[in-house]
Amino acid sequence: MGILDGKVAVITGGASGQGAAEARLFAAEGAKVVIADVQDDLGKNLVDELAGAAIYVHTDVSSEEDWAETIRQTIDAFGDPTILVQSAAIVHHKLIEDSPREEFDRVLAVNLVGPYLGMRAVLEPMQRAGGGSIINVGSGSALSGVAGRALYGSSKWGLRGLTKSAAIEFGVFGIRVNSIQPGAIDTPMLRRSDQEIPPPQIPIARYGTPEEIAEAALFLASDRGAYITGIDLPVDGGSTAGSWVRPRADFKTND
């Protein structure tokens, strides 16, 4: 028996990276999984891998129409969703003066408006199901300012506020809403970036893995986290614990 037996999970960005790790783990723990993404080939390949435990739905999270269709197909295939993990995101690494308005609009559409639409889309079916769990995947950039990441970071700061307000509003329906704030995680998104924290500056001294984010999401999605709502959970190897100065060895003195 898995800890998600009988659950139905919609996972945005579920075709690759952290989302795919969540899809695999949730299916292994007994959930039926809906992979909602725009990466059609990767999504369909993952459905084949999960052998009957998942379906794929092409979903642009910034589209209200796509959300309606995703939930319709979820209900047709598995019943009302009881878990929503919002992993879909786009990154943006530019200074403010080099970032035109249309780039900010797109970042906000995917990273902030998308999760808002997702929570609205699942609210009614989750109420019918008697409750559920929503996990919004943010970023360490939502816990401190980062130069060159103002657009991306502000979208994730906004997601933190949206999460906390939704937790207060949805609690009466038995729906918990939490956020995970990943640090530098070894995914294709990180490998496309040249601005991530180098491992020596992370207290645990390595990048995280998608599977470690999936384990955090699993806990919050399951009944083991039944009394937890409205939190930000950093999963970052200690990156946001404080300011890194230099390695400990530099503080050693020779007598």
TrEMBL record:
Single GO term (MF): glucose 1-dehydrogenase [NAD(P)+] activity
- Keywords recorded for this protein, A-Z: Lipid metabolism, NAD, Oxidoreductase, Steroid metabolism
The record's EC number reads 1.1.1.47
UniProt keyword rRNA processing, yes or no: no
Top-level lineage group: Bacteria
Q: Which InterPro entries match?
A: NAD(P)-bd_dom_sf, Sc_DH/Rdtase_CS, SDR_fam
Biological process (GO) annotations? steroid metabolic process
Keyword Ligase in annotation: no
NCBIfam families, per the entry: PRK07231.1
What PANTHER family does the record point to? 3-OXOACYL-(ACYL-CARRIER-PROTEIN) REDUCTASE (AFU_ORTHOLOGUE AFUA_6G11210) (PTHR43180), NAD(P)-BINDING ROSSMANN-FOLD SUPERFAMILY PROTEIN (PTHR43180:SF28)
What the record says about family reads:
Belongs to the short-chain dehydrogenases/reductases (SDR) family.
Q: Any idea what this protein is called? A: Glucose 1-dehydrogenase
Query: What is the organism field in this record?
Result: Rhodococcus oxybenzonivorans
